[in-house]
Amino acid sequence: MEFDLAQIFDPMSLLKCFIVGGLICVIGQILIDKTKLTPARILVIFVTTGAVLGGLGVYQYIVDFAGSGATVPLTGFGYNLAKGAIEGARQSGLIGVFTGGVKACAGGIAAAVFFGYIASLISKPKMKKQ
Amino acid sequence: MDNKQKYQQYVDKKSPNSPILKNCFFAFVIGGLICTIGQVIANICKWRGCDTATSGTIVSIILIGISAFLTGLNIFNKIGKIAGAGSLVPITGFANSIVSPAMEYKSEGYVMGVGGKMFTVSGPVLVFGISASILVGLVFLIFNTQSITLV
């Protein structure tokens, strides 16, 4: 198989991704600067918003347009959860509602737990500069 | 005595007045770049023949892995200082929010310190994210439609 640079660095998809991903981050930055919200709350807001927009079907359009520009931000995490829950509901009803969301994000969650733990183990506790 | 007022003026002058435009610019560029890295990985996966869901998972795993280790090496914080929301909002921020409290409480031991404090910030994210997804699924079950807004 030949390394297809034109497909991997497809400029149109990268540009769309850059702009949409950047804009989502700007929304977060405005929230940080203009309100007294802590980062943790902002993460929660983004995930919940993503789940709601994903449930309404709005976020699908953004994902279709921007690809990773929409799925990499935390709104995409929420969208994935909601999409998984709907997919699960379609396939196996009430059980699917509970299993589908986490199933769709299992890779990300497991990676976060695993790499998070390993990275904390190898890290050196930093001295706080006063 | 107007010392208090003078002091307030002094503080206002000295304290950095968070320049929102500059912050937004850096958040835009760095956030966009992180997403673009994700898109490149996704394109590679697509080229290798993965479907959209699989390549999305691979992108998340790689980005989370990278940012977790960058946090452990204290590099991510330096990026975060410039980028603000640019590194917080992408999934890299999620990994960062797991590793940084875990690092801080390392002295309390490997089980309750690292293992427990990992979720001080990311715990709420999972709680609200998963709860919201279950609600969405329930709404879908009841109304059997996703297209409330779709005309």
Low-confidence stretches of chain A: none
Shape designation of chain B: extended
Relative strand content of chain B = under 5%
Q: How many helical stretches of chain A?
A: 6
**Terminus-to-terminus distance of chain B:** 66 Å
Biggest interface found: A-B, 89 and 84 residues
Explained architecture:
The complex is a heterodimer of chains A (130) and B (151). Chain A has six helices and no strands. With 130 residues, chain A is mainly alpha-helical. Chain A has one domain. In chain A, helix 3 (39-56) packs across helix 6 (74-122). With 151 residues, chain B is an all-alpha fold. The N and C termini of chain B lie far apart (66 Å). Classes of the chains: A mainly alpha (130), B mainly alpha (151). Chains A and B meet through helix 2, helix 3, helix 5 and helix 6 of A and helix 2, helix 3, helix 5, helix 6 and helix 7 of B.
What structural keywords apply?
heterodimer; A: 130 residues; mainly alpha; 6 helices; 83% helix; globular; B: 151 residues; 8 helices; 80% helix
Quick summary:
The complex is a heterodimer of chains A (130) and B (151). Chain A is mainly α and 130 residues long. Chain A is built from 6 helices and no strands.
Topology:
The complex is a heterodimer of chains A (130) and B (151).
Chain A: H1 5-8, H2 11-34, H3 39-56, H4 58-66, H5 68-71, H6 74-122
Helix pairs in contact in A: 3-6
Chain B: H1 3-14, H2 20-48, H3 52-72, H4 76-83, H5 85-88, H6 91-104, H7 110-117, H8 119-143
